[in-house]
Amino acid sequence: MPFHIRSLATAIMGLVGFGAAHAADVSAPPAKAEKPVTIFPAFLVNDNRVTYSYLPNGTDPGVTAKTAKQVYSFTHFDAWAYGTNLISLSLLKSDHNDPAQPCAIGRTGCSGASEFYGFVRSTFGFNQIFNTKALTVGPLHNVSLEVGADAEVENNALSPAKRVGVVGLQFAFDLPYKGFFNVAPMYYKEINHSAFIPAPYDSNQNFDSTWTIETNYYMDLGFLPDWLPLSVSGRAAWIGPKGTGTNQPGTLTRKLELNSEPIRLTLDASKAFAGAQYTHMVDVWVAYRYWQNKFGLDHNLAPQCVGTNAGACTESSVYTGVTVKF
After folding, report:
1. What is the pLDDT of residues 25-74, one digit of tens each?
2. Do the Cβ atoms of 209 and 191 come closer than 8 Å?
3. Does 114 map to a domain?
4. CATH number of the domain where residue 248 is located
5. Which InterPro entries match (predicted)?
6. What's this model's pTM, rounded to 2 decimal places?
């Protein structure tokens, strides 16, 4: 059946999130498809992209309030008869302000930490499953079951080993110029690791179940002339309080966390300079990132966020990148 393709989400996060901590670095949607692509007949869309981006003002709670990060990302998006799949894999390389471990205190010239973050989000549209249009009302386009998972490791002083599972509903709304706005309230469960937890307490963290709300939007600026193919997109994810994750006395309860990229402005460079047949083959973009209570740590009270670490739990940065479709 014809399936109105929902465009690629940008965060995630990702997004994610991107409820994901690092949303996909994807700046433009795949083309709308009414027929399966021949090389992958099961898919209405099969879209793969690589991105390089530079984040000048990243943070690492408990270590530094400022570290530049280079981010290398791969994203895959596909749509099939009953839903969509989004996979994002990112490698983040910090500068020496966020050193890899082991690195002795006071030592200079340490290599920056390397972080891997990956997530997957899958949707199953109720309109498609039940062969109906009952959930297409006004701007509401569809309601879907959404499931997903996140994973992270990093070789810094914290040594995280994050594992997350989410499940809930996604409400998809139409915007002008074939754009979209999605909102997904979901159940959220996280387990992790922290080298900051001293013996004899378990450094493996089992956080309480909580909620998350993930949102993302995308819209071409279709009112602009054809020679200026710009689009705007963004994402936000709220993660509810999730307890302490440990039995160590005196540990503060994690607070409401906001991980967002409220706006990304993308220029379809390939279309602008090579023609419409190359739409979104090469995108260049600039975005603003805002992450409050990073990892759920209270930016006003948590030891990782105050004193010599003041500002480490609020990440605020303009960053840029280039995305290539293949």
Report:
1. 433 344 343 444 445 557 889 999 999 999 999 999 999 999 999 999 99
2. no
3. yes
4. 2.40.230.20
5. Channel_Tsx-like_sf
6. 0.88
